[in-house]
Design brief:
Number of strands: 9
Strand order of the largest sheet: 1-2-3-4-9-8-7-6
Helix content: 25-40%
Distance between the termini: 35 Å
Shape: globular
Order of helices and strands: HEEEEEEHEEEHHHH
Bound molecules: manganese (II) ion
Length: about 280
């Protein structure tokens, strides 16, 4: 542990990501970061023992218990990664934009139910559950709430790294059928969209449009107007994104080619691609 792998993968004179420092005091926070690297995915992190245990979830977490989300355990991250949002520069590990998609508290749950309900467990029990590959926990975030499980998959195929888990929502009052993660493309810290964080031209365009409404005195009204503005902007964006997508894709493809030659060590996107294939297989099974 102790963040060696985190340290080894990064060049801290180039990336704005926090340095590899193990925290003295541990809380039980969690964060989900939306990460647009060469492949879009979500990073799910639980604070334990002074670090953030981390899983890359290609499709992101779901509140639908029917979804079994593949979650690949990756290197522990420093606790200060908790509010990291921004851009990891090109040619660095995980290059792309990072959004703080959800934050909150987590609570390990004892595998032994009391009167049909999960009850809180302590850190030691949490460690034991992790070692066993079956961690139950409760989330109290802004978007993710209720009981979940992370279940380690047995390495069934040759070449499996043994880092594959499934993130599954338990049945409770917080479950949502046909949960659509794409409905939330905004930071819970800064309210920015992924495009805004990346500083894309498309978002700069709608941000810079004249604020023609003048000052609004009532704060609640200002809030409502801001929301309406955002909704309109989103509608406009989705209308234009279909057209923009194909060109953007072409651009990234050519970019990838040139960067690959100079730096072959970016393993994250490859793992995620493999994982996506695997989830497809899971679905059909
Ligand atoms: Mn990531």
């Amino acid at each position: 542990m102790a963040l060696e792998e985190y340290k080894r993968k990064r060049r801290f004179e180039e990336t704005p990501e926090p340095p590899p420092k193990v925290a003295v005091k541990s809380g039980r926070r969690f964060v989900v970061q939306k990460h647009r690297a060469s492949r879009l995915h979500y990073d799910f992190r639980l604070e334990l023992d002074g670090v953030l245990l981390s899983w890359a979830v290609p499709k992101g977490p779901s509140l639908d218990p029917a979804d079994k989300r593949l979650a690949m355990q990756v290197e522990d991250h420093p606790v200060s990664y908790f509010d990291f949002e921004g851009i990891i520069p090109e040619n660095n590990y995980g290059a792309g934009s990072v959004m703080v998609w959800d934050v909150g508290k987590w609570q390990p749950l004892s595998p032994v139910q009391v009167e049909g309900k999960y009850v809180p467990a302590n850190d030691e029990e949490a460690r034991a559950m992790l070692n066993k590959g079956d961690l139950k926990f409760r989330l109290e975030g802004k978007r993710l709430k209720g009981d979940f499980a992370l279940i380690k998959m047995k390495g069934r195929r040759a070449g499996s790294k043994g880092n594959e888990w499934l993130l599954i929502k338990k049945h409770d009052q917080h479950q949502v059928e046909d949960y659509d993660i794409d409905q939330y493309d905004s930071s819970v810290l800064t309210k920015r969209s992924m495009d805004e964080i990346a500083g894309d031209e498309a978002s700069a365009e709608w941000r810079s449009r004249p604020a023609g409404r003048g000052k609004v005195k009532a704060p609640w009204l200002a809030d409502a107007i801001a929301k309406l503005d955002q909704k309109k902007a989103e509608e406009r964006k989705s209308a234009s994104s279909a057209a923009a997508d194909s060109t953007a894709e072409a651009k990234t493809k050519s970019k990838k080619k040139s960067s690959r030659a100079s730096k072959p060590a970016k393993s994250e996107p490859i793992e995620i691609r493999a994982a996506e294939k695997k989830t497809k297989k899971l679905k059909s099974a």
